[in-house]
Design goal:
single chain; alpha+beta; Aminopeptidase; 8 strands; about 30% helix
């Protein structure tokens, strides 16, 4: 497995492939809801590759000088359980630390919150809805 982080068109296409497979086709989310205004040419995507096949992804943005927001973590069904999403999150946290961020923030589906809690994230909000799915905001000190 190899992790690449960047905004090259081929890497962006790979991230979109994984997100389309997981969120739209598998989970039934609306296409127009999954791909949003953050999916622009300047955003970087983390993509884990099994040889040339993209199998896991995530993206990030800096909310300000102190907070990195990590999102759209997804892994193809047949690759789950290999801690690929965990590896992506940890690498993005490292990027945040290197840029001087003090905190990482993640909007998580309620059903996935325990995954992030295992990585020392803490739920800091009441339940809210994104794309008609119950979510919570989690944060972690970096």
């Amino acid at each position: 497995m190899k992790l690449h982080i960047g905004n090259e068109i081929w890497n962006k296409a790979s991230a979109f492939y994984v997100r389309m497979s997981v969120f739209v086709l598998e989970r039934g989310m609306e296409l127009s809801e999954e791909f949003d205004q953050l999916d622009c040419s300047t955003i970087d995507y983390a993509v884990m590759y099994d040889l040339e096949k993209p199998v896991s992804t995530g993206r990030y943005e800096f909310l300000d000088d102190n907070i990195i927001r990590i999102g759209r973590i997804a892994t193809l069904k047949e690759y789950r359980g290999q801690k690929l999403g965990r590896a992506i999150i940890q690498k993005l946290e490292t990027i945040g630390r290197e840029k001087g961020c003090l905190k990482a923030s993640i909007h998580s589906e309620q059903t996935a919150a325990s995954f992030y809690e295992e990585l020392d994230y803490i739920v800091v909000s009441d339940e809210f809805y994104e794309n008609n799915v119950p979510c919570v905001l989690l944060e972690k000190k970096l």
